[in-house]
């Protein structure tokens, strides 16, 4: 009778800790698996040789210095939003509204360019643009933050709705500024007032410098400061935070102002350094993609740089495939989607350990202990 | 008066799209799964429905329209369920983060629909499936009965199917054992598990069926609302997000989705009909501002429900959390 109890074929145990090597191996397997699935997809749908397609894909980013520079430009926009979102998500505040926060930052920048361009000297114009962008972004973060802190209002949908409010505001202003013209075009085309100066040949290189700085700064902020510590405690458990004497509401509001302001900064950099104009598509979906970037990197800004690069590489590569093989660049969405599914799924094998029936009893005993 | 009728005739079909999306998501969220992949799922449903109808029409000499409708419904439902299955496997079995998985599913669904859509478009900017005429068939005699007939009976069958679906879902969720089990899992999966309810099975079923229902919203958009025209657009994505907002608006009650979605539809078309109704014209930039209204109303509702803190208006307690039996 002693041996009649059923042991299930497989059961799952939580890992207390996994080594760095283990994590790297699991993630590599996930990416490899994704590439194999993607290759199968490419082969069965298009009949093309997947290896040739992957080679072409590589050229999207690396075929010449200009391509690489463009990839870096787009990486800067994505990574900036990711860095801005990191503190909010580490606090488990689901800020789906980066898109809107970037847009209002961009709108404030553009407004300063339109109304003060040529009236203020450049030395004053840049700070005014920057402050306006920071303030606008911070406001867009503050509003859902304060309602979450005071009344527990669901932030996921609040921030999502704020995106649309921002989009309509931008549509309204663009409508006013373009006047009778069909499109807005570049702002201050003649005077170039508010355009970033060229550094190493490109205006957007300033964005790259800022993003490198922010990667380091945000890493230190989250890792080594008291505020960063408070954020992680609130993220782990609000009750623990309260018990430890942390003013949870204050931390939420402060972090959302920071997160929003950094999104606003991104808007400023996009308008001043990259586009010199504004449209409802200025944020370009980065607000959503950046969430995935921040989450997969577990809010480590250096990993975020790596993941942003992977995603930008895919996007550029898919564009290259599209033009080379007469496909369309929505393939990049599918390829990225499959890779994300695999990486998300692989987290399971980092956090949990499946144990099969045939495993030795002693090993199970160790796991439980 | 004519403006008002035109407004209603616009608002109800618009509401129907997001009603399907929201009804599916209510079922999903009742078991504690917050699926942000609704836009992607609606893309999958819309495209699968369109593609199956279009391919059938073009491969058969005399297509049977009734069969075509059934085919598109089934294909849309299955394609959306596959989307739901991917989400379920990742979040339920592999316990991945629900929000991030949902967002990835949105990217994926949009990519799949538009990627394969381009093959069907074959260089054109838009193609049309003629099955929309069957989808749009009004109720024969009743829709001829003056204004009321026009505004109440003047839509395709999927408008009424949505209402019936809402009532059926309300009945299942509130008055049956299955609904009780579903709600129990959404509130506290550990307790439901202890009571002998198979948490995993219910979560899978609810999420996949919910996704199927949401996908019908995409189908309705393409084959009825948009007159069977497929084009590469971002429109369905915006509708999917609106459907998610509607779920909150209804406070997770299917019956509220009926009037809630029509209200959304009314507000959505506010910018076009209100100025005419009031007898003045507004410049374009004011129109942009009026288009903000549905979103502002949703925010207001969010705030009000969080202020009132009524027990029955709260989201399922375990919403967004993965369940792991050994973690108590």
Description:
The complex is a heterodimer of chains A (369) and B (328). Chain A has 369 residues and is an all-alpha fold. Chain A has 2 domains: 12-47 and 330-369, no CATH class; 71-321, ABC transporter involved in vitamin B12 uptake, BtuC (Orthogonal Bundle). Chain A has helices at residues 20-46, 50-62, 65-90, 98-116, 122-151, 155-178, 205-224, 226-236, 238-243, 248-275, 286-296, 301-325, 331-351, 361-368; strands at residues 10-14, 352-356. In chain A, helix 1 (20-46) packs antiparallel against helix 13, helix 3 crosses helix 8 and helix 12 runs antiparallel to helix 13. Chain A is globular. The relative contact order of chain A is 0.19. The model of chain A is unreliable at 362-369 (pLDDT under 50). By secondary structure, chain B is an all-alpha fold. Chain B has one domain (2-310): ABC transporter involved in vitamin B12 uptake, BtuC (Orthogonal Bundle). Chain B has 15 helices and 2 strands. Chain B has helices at 2-30, 38-59, 65-93, 98-121, 132-135, 146-153, 157-175, 177-187, 189-194, 199-225, 235-249, 254-268, 270-278, 284-290, 293-308, and strands at 126-128, 229-231. In chain B, strands 1-2 form a two-stranded antiparallel ribbon. Chain B starts with a helix and ends in a 20-residue tail after the last helix. The model of chain B has no long low-confidence stretch (mean pLDDT 88). Chains A and B meet through strand 1, helix 6, helix 11 and helix 13 of A and helix 3, helix 4, helix 11, helix 14 and helix 15 of B.
């Amino acid at each position: 009778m002693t041996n009649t109890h059923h042991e299930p074929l497989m059961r799952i145990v939580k890992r207390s800790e996994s080594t760095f090597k283990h994590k790297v191996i699991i993630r590599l397997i996930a990416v490899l698996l994704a590439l194999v699935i993607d290759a199968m997809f490419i082969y069965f749908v298009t009949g093309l040789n997947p290896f040739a397609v992957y080679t072409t894909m590589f050229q999207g980013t690396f075929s010449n210095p200009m391509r690489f520079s463009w990839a870096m430009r787009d990486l800067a926009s994505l990574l900036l939003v990711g860095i801005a979102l990191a503190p909010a998500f580490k606090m488990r505040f689901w800020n789906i509204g980066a898109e809107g926060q970037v847009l209002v930052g961009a709108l404030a920048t553009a407004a300063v360019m339109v109304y003060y361009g040529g009236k203020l000297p450049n030395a004053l114009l840049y700070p005014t643009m920057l402050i306006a962008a920071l303030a606008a972004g911070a406001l867009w973060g503050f509003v859902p933050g304060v309602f979450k802190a005071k009344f527990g209002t669901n932030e996921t949908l609040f921030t999502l709705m704020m995106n649309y409010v921002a989009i309509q505001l931008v549509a309204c202003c663009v409508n006013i500024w373009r006047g009778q013209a069909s499109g807005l075009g570049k702002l201050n085309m003649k005077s170039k007032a508010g355009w970033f100066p060229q550094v190493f040949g490109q205006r957007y290189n300033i964005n790259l410098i800022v993003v490198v700085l922010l990667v380091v700064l945000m890493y230190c902020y989250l890792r080594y400061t008291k505020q960063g510590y408070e954020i992680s405690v609130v993220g782990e458990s609000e009750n623990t935070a309260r018990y430890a004497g942390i003013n949870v509401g204050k931390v939420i509001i402060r972090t959302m102002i920071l997160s929003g302001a950094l999104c606003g900064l991104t808007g400023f950099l996009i308008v001043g350094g990259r586009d010199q104009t504004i449209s409802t598509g200025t944020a370009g979906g980065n607000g959503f993609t950046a969430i995935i970037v921040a989450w997969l990197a577990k809010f480590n800004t250096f990993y975020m740089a790596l993941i942003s690069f992977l995603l930008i590489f895919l996007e550029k590569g898919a564009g290259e495939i599209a033009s080379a093989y007469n496909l369309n660049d929505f393939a990049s969405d599918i390829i990225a989607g499959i890779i994300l599914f695999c990486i998300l799924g692989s987290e399971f094998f980092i956090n949990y350990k499946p144990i099969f029936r045939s495993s030795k009893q002693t090993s199970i005993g160790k796991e439980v202990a | 008066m004519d403006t008002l009728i035109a407004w209603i005739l616009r608002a109800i079909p618009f509401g129907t799209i997001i009603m399907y999306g929201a009804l599916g998501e209510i079922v999903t969220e009742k078991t504690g799964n917050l699926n942000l992949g609704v836009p992607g799922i609606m893309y999958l449903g819309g495209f699968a429905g369109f593609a199956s109808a279009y391919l059938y029409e073009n491969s058969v000499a005399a297509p049977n329209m009734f069969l075509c409708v059934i085919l598109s419904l089934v294909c849309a439902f299955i394609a959306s369920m596959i989307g739901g299955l991917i989400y379920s496997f990742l979040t339920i079995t592999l316990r991945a983060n629900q929000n991030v998985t949902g967002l990835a599913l949105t990217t994926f669904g949009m990519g799949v629909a538009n990627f394969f859509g381009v093959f069907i478009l074959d260089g054109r900017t838009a193609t049309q499936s003629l099955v929309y005429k069957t989808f749009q068939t009004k109720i024969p005699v009743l829709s001829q009965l003056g204004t009321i007939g026009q505004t109440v009976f003047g839509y395709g069958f999927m408008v009424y199917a949505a209402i019936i679906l809402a009532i059926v879902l309300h009945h299942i969720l509130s008055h049956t054992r299955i609904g009780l089990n579903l709600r129990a899992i959404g509130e506290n999966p550990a307790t439901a598990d202890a009571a002998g309810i198979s948490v995993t099975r219910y979560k899978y079923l609810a999420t996949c069926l919910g996704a199927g229902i949401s996908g019908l919203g995409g189908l309705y958009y393409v084959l009825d609302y948009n007159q069977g025209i497929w084009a590469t657009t971002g429109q369905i994505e915006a509708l999917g997000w609106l459907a998610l907002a509607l779920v909150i608006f209804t406070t997770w009650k299917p019956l509220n989705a009926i009037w809630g979605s029509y209200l959304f539809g009314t507000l959505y078309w506010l910018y076009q009909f209100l100025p005419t109704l009031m007898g003045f014209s507004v410049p374009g930039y004011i129109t942009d501002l009026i288009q903000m209204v549905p979103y502002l109303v949703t925010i207001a509702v969010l705030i009000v429900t969080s202020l009132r803190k009524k027990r029955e208006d709260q989201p399922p307690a375990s919403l967004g959390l993965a369940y792991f039996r050994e973690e108590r």
